[in-house]
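Friendly challenge for the regulars: who can give me the structure tokens for this chain first? No prize, just bragging rights.
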Amino acid sequence: MVTIEELDPASLDEATLAQLAELATIEERAFAPDDPPVEVAEVADELRVLPTFEERLLWVARDPDGRLLGRATLDIEHREENKHLAEVSLVVRPEDRRQGVGRRLLDDAAGRARTAGRTTLLGASPVGSDGAAAAQVLGAESVLVERISRLRTAELDRSLLEAWVARAPERAAGYSLVAWDGRCPDELLEPFAGIMAVMNTAPRGDMDMEDEFYTPELIRDFEASIERKGTNVWTIAARHDATGQLAGYTALFFPKHRPWQAEQGDTGVDPAHRDRGLGRWLKAVNLLRLLDERPEAQVVDTGNAATNEPMLNINVALGFRPLVEVAILQRKLT
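First reply, four minutes later:
Bragging rights claimed.
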């Protein structure tokens, strides 16, 4: 008989963490089949090291021998916006699918989301996958398609990056760059909180989601959590020299447990400052530094809405190639 248990992430033993790493590897390989296995330490950090405004709950399905057949996590953010949302992540071993395991895990996660006052569940699964099909059977609908793209650094064209940087004084006259590693400098914290809101202009399809805003306090909370994980972040922002305002920014993340991978985080430019090549300039500077200082990083991964043509055009020009299309799935809780 299969049992469903809620587990405390802080109290997991090594044997359970090892099985959770196996499940995480199954989940990750639906997106990138050739990637290395997920490490046990990475799973432990993902479950335990969070900003204080984020809560992560965990359920597992076990067979009578104690083997984990599947796992569900529920993420609830306690912020001013989107108090109706929760995010679920679910994986079942391929040989144990179509036996109701996923449905039971999802029912427990959805029940807890309702108890927390959440009325909409969000999740993600590769387009055409077992997970996407199962989610739709369970009442979810696809509300956005996101393209996950991968750049292989061995194929990155340094001359292209240098050309984009060289052209910046012409296209982006009146702007300069400011950069930092890790924590945002105190004097830039308020302007950085303001420019982060530009990500609200990215396409959201039919997602039932409100605009989100980062306060300086939330930024410091998030920074502290990724520092505890050992993740390094390189951030570059474009500053409008006449006003001192930040006009755009980009960030590269370097996860401790994945030295072979860099993650391209947000890149956004304020609509009032677009069509000056700021996005290209910002990305080119960070990627040139990556080539010089992070030779162990073999790939850079990023995600964009499939309808975000301006950002996709930049990424394609850089050499990013589609890795997988992901359906953002939404289920109303009634």
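The mean pLDDT is 96. The two ends are 29 Å apart (CA to CA). Your move, everyone else.
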